[in-house]
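Collaborator request log, item 7. Partner lab (contact: R.S.) asked for a structural prediction of ABC transporter substrate-binding protein to inform their binding assays.
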Amino acid sequence: MKPIRALVCAVLMAPGLATAARSEILIGSVLSTTGPASFLGEPEKQTLEVYAKRINDAGGVNGEKIRLIIYDDGSDASNSRTFATRLVEQDQVVAVVGGTGTGNSLAMIPVFEEAGIPFVSLSGGVDIIDPVRKWVFKPPHTDRMACAKIFTDLKQRGLTNAAFIAGQGGYAKSMVTQCRSVAGQYGIKILAEESYGPRDSDMTAQLTRIKALPGLKAVINADIGQGPAIVTRNAAQINLGMPLYQSHGAATQGYLELAGPAAEGVRLPGPSLLVAEQLPDSDPQKKVLLDYTAVIEKATGKPVGTFGGYAHDGLLLLVDAMKRAGSADPAKVRDQLEKTKGYVATVGIITMSPTDHLGIDLSAFRMLEVKRGKWAVVD
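Returned to partner:
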């Protein structure tokens, strides 16, 4: 059994303390800060740390300071569940925000549901919140929404025949399933489906088979991590000759850097965060997006990204719920999360209910295209 790697971060506290003072609010997190999904998990961790400190410097939550307990699952879902159990049984956290990948979040959900601990997931899979689970919420756009946004764009371009190339992780599998389930609603025909493993470094064979399909008009890649960048570079190498779409799992600075010039013209559904400066001043999200951008770029010296934005939203949703509850009691926080209304976040404007633990719709997505190495708004 491979060793489990862990990173524990105690914000504003000396390391090694076994128990927390009563004046602290313990919030747990399990992220993929190493392994294939590390360039997604690392900005999540940085965002959580930066904003926990900002909250504490401003007086904390209801007069109490936050202490984060963060574990690194190494991009391995089995590790995620192990650390979820530790957060509940050993660390005794009152809430959790985390889960870089869909598989990681799904592995942890049963632990938090059984323990009665609010869990705000940072993953994209719709299965996390559909069906609705009592203790689980999430701000990120879902894979089903990504399918709808891509298919709408394909239809507008008159491209009705598409093929998939996808990874084998939880998010990738979920997105392909969701896309197949709604493709007919948009008049899109899926001609073929190819896949690749998490450690594969060359997908030219799969892409070559796809390219040879008669009548094919577009290719959709469903995955997170490094896979989308490799697919993009390989597509350019074989001169794919048709539009390539990525999912919002590739809406990161890391993707742009790894894919390089090969990404020119690639489209994907993404959050407004990536194009904040292009928004009109009347947009209700613009101030939140620019503020987050300024804070993170000053703290880290790096551009903001989608997954860091998810962490921002997840933590601040919890804090907002705690403030409205006047307590960090898990049950009271859960109830207030479910009552979230008109909350302006990086993903959109969130309104939750007993039947909706996501709180955003397709209008929260924008179709983006890579132009000269940067994100540009298509619609």
